[in-house]
Amino acid sequence: MKKYFIPALYVAVAVAVFVFLGYKQPWLMSVREESQLWLCSSDYLWQRVSEPGGVARYLGEFIVQSYYLILLGSIVTALLFFIMLWLWWITLRRLWRYYRQTAYPIWLQLLAMVPTLFLGILLLDINVQMTLPVAIILVVLLSWLVPQRRIIAFPAVAGLLLLGWWLAGPVIVLLPLLAPWTLLPDSKMSKTAVGIGGMRFVVLMLLLTGTIWLYAPYSQRPLRRLIVGIDYVNDNISTIGTPEEQQYEFWMRLHLWNRMLTAARKQSPKSRACQYAVMLAEWKQDGSRESELRQCYHDTWHSLSSCTASFLMSDLYLQLGWVNMSQRAAHDALVSFSNYNSSGRALKRIAEMGLITGQYELVVKYATILERAPFYHAWAREALQMAEHPELIDKNPNCLRLRQAYIEIPDGVFY
Description:
Helix content is about 70%, strand content about 0%. The protein is built from 23 helices and no strands. Helix 1 (about 1-25) packs antiparallel against helix 5 and helix 15 (about 270-285) packs parallel to helix 18 (about 305-320).
């Protein structure tokens, strides 16, 4: 029975992650997906891997693109957490066998859960990027390559330290700690052994610091960003949006009007964009507050306050038939992302509105980009066909409805 307890516990953690993201707080995935654009192209790959930590960033963004579909994203993230649990367990078992050379205790398997659970808590903050857990996974895998022979262990970890910095970024400082025999070859913790281990660690850190300092003049990133990690944490935490805006934006996208109204009755929303979303929900449900809702037409300064709020307002404007305003809000979201990120959702909305307003060159430009994004590929192909043959637009019911609204309803761009 004990043999299956820990594997069952790891599976239970993965299931809990699936349920939490898929049913409890799915907007955490939605916001991450709309803040990036993963492209299946050699240019995009080269752009990412040409910077320190770029491999981790590329793989992290590859995972996040699956969040376009909530169910798929939940499954992928649950599997990622299960893999992290397994990797940490293998790593701790390797350390135990090296120093103790005895059967490992059950508490060691439980201890392997701590780093993964800590990362899970960090990822609840939308400003922590998926690059960070992927980078740590890469470092754990690199630690398995460090030989346990005393003569070559230290030179090997020095070489892997530099390679790992380019692959995973500055979290590579964990490498000598995950292969501690490079610092303390014996289990004896004498003052001499600890002193030598400390000196070896200082040498490795000086080697890494010197490498970063020498590379900095050739990078477009500031030295501070190279030291703390290019894409571990969002540069400007104020641009993403509040948790409240994330929830309302998700409900708006799925037209969950009752969820909005229920949440608003429990606690009145603070964000101006969320307040307008509640007005729209009431208008959709019983036709009330239409005159108040139209105030948002002129209130772009307060309502377009973050990336998430801009997406929310873009959907709201679209529900009201204000095509230009919907496009403008999507553009505000696009240019607000930090870390030089683009947004597949923003590009899609801008191109969608371009089909309605007759901006066909703009549609071709953005749809050509989205063709290389797996989850936007089918839509991009259809948009390109409509841009090349505008007569197809009137055959699309949604486009026809928006075009009629665009002609009949007063609209603008800047207010």
